Amino acid sequence: MDYQQRHKNLKRYTLDIKSKVADYQVKIGNNILTQLPGAIKKISNPALVCAVIDSEVKRLHWVTISEILNDNFQKVIFHTVPQGERSKSSEQLNKIYSFLLKNKCDKHTVMLAIGGGVTGDIAGLAASTYLRGIKLVHIPTTLLSMVDSCIGGKTAINFNDAKNIIGTIYPPQLVFIETDFLKTLPDVEIKAAFGEIIKYAFIADESYYNYLKKNINLLLSGKLSGYTELIYRCLQIKKAVVEADEYEAGIRQILNFGHTFGHAIESGLEFKVKHGYAIAAGIIAAIILSREVGLITKQNAEKFFSLPLKIHIPKEILALKIPAALSFIDYDKKRRDGKYRFILISDIREIVTGVNPDRKLIKSALEEMLEVIKVLNKVY
Q1: Are residues 113 and 65 in contact, defined by beta-carbon separation less than 8 angstroms?
Q2: Which of 65, 93, 232, 281 has its CA 20 to 30 A from that of 211?
Q3: Is 111 helix (H, G, I), strand (E, B) or coil?
Q4: φ, ψ dihedrals at 169, nearest 5°
Q5: Which of 135, 138, 163, 252 is an active site residue?
Q6: Cα–Cα dist 333/265, whole Å
């Protein structure tokens, strides 16, 4: 069954996100890209549109995207960002600034971020800082960015291999999720996205956790026509959290479940493992640490392992050097007064923030995480 058959006549959704800066809408559906210009004109009527686009998205969808934009706006300019985590750099950010200046972009320019999480992060940071802020529209093209990073306003680049160490919180004016982009998304990108989708299963409620556990194999194989609904459900969960704590002063930290370890794993492996896989591994490590500090039993820990292991974390993760990962945990943004602050779990929907384990327990959790992945033989 191909993508078009699986997604035929699926529902379309609209989410309204409340923000302290300005409320914005999220549009979700397949074959809705032609509605993008009209949606943009409802928030602004720009003379100049600047599209920051992922190189692979441009290669695959250039004709469609350029025609839709050029047919509806007075002037459209495109800046291409090379695909991959390495593009989240000061070098690439400066290239965007230079492009904006060269083309005389002003406060009325609308920036479109067309791509996955990398493009959204770097374009969002550029939009938030150029002229102290220009209008931003997210058009995510990967499943991971659709279910997670496209809302909430986080922008970032990496620095000295430290993940997301420089950034802002800058909500977009519009998010437009065209699920037809998933048609050309490689299977590995679909599978990796489930690292973030699984995170929502732990922080949401037991019914969603049970639904995902029951159906994850069908979703991963593409045999269940549920991506549009899945995106909507994940964003509903994130919407509730972000609206309650937009600037991450409290409850929003639960969205970082598995991420302290996950980001350290990514950085320690020099970004050679996809973000979603690193987050899945980070969730396993967080479950282990939760057990070690007495939040969950050994039995529950083993039960919780099964979901992140379903996505078959690739064997490349086993090359992780523990000292390297530990050094990047030292850069984690949640550290306070020299103390580690982890997001752990006591049960489904029972996320515990601000746990301060010692370095020995963190090291032990990373070591056991690698052993769990290796011994349970859920690697490629």
Answers
A1: no
A2: 281
A3: strand
A4: -110, 115
A5: 252
A6: 15
Tell me if residue 336 falls in helix, strand or coil. strand
Catalytic option among 7, 95, 138, 259: 259
- Active-site residue among 58, 138, 238, 310? 238
Q: Is 263 a catalytic residue?
A: yes
Backbone angles phi, psi at 354, to 5 degrees: 70, 30
Catalytic residue among 85, 196, 246, 292: 196
Measured between its terminal Cα atoms, the distance across the chain in Å is 24
Q: Is 256 designated active site?
A: yes
Helices (H), the chain: 3-6, 36-43, 55-70, 90-102, 117-129, 143-144, 187-203, 206-221, 227-244, 259-268, 275-292, 298-309, 322-329, 359-375
Q: How far apart are CA 4 and CA 121, in angstroms?
A: 29
Answer whether 61's CB lies under 8 Å from 181's CB.
yes
Segment 316-372, tens digit of pLDDT: 999 999 999 999 998 777 777 667 889 999 999 999 998 999 999 999 999 999 999
Known active-site residue 238: yes
Catalytic residue among 189, 243, 248, 367: 248
Confirm whether 275 is a catalytic residue: yes
More confident residue, 92 or 224: 92
Of 266, 244, 274, whose CA–CA distance to 18 is shortest?
244
Reply yes or no on whether 154 is catalytic: yes
Would the pLDDT of 2 be above 70?
no
Instruction: Kindly provide the b/e burial profile for residues 102-136, where b requires at least 16 CB atoms within 10 angstroms of the residue's own CB.
Output: eeebeeebbbbbbbbbbbbbbbbbbbbbbeeebbb
Rounded Cα distance between 293 and 362, Å, is 10
- What is the residue-averaged pLDDT of the chain? 92
Choosing from 233, 263, 291, 310, which is the catalytic residue? 263
Active site residue 67: no
Q: Quick one: CA torsion of 190, 333, 202, 376, rounded to 10 degrees? A: 70
CA pair distance 107, 141, nearest whole angstrom: 26
Catalytic, 132? Answer yes
**Local structure of residue 42 (DSSP, 8 states):** H
| pLDDT tens digits for range 111-138 | 999 999 999 999 999 999 999 999 999 9
Inter-axis angle of helices 206-221 and 298-309, nearest 10:
30
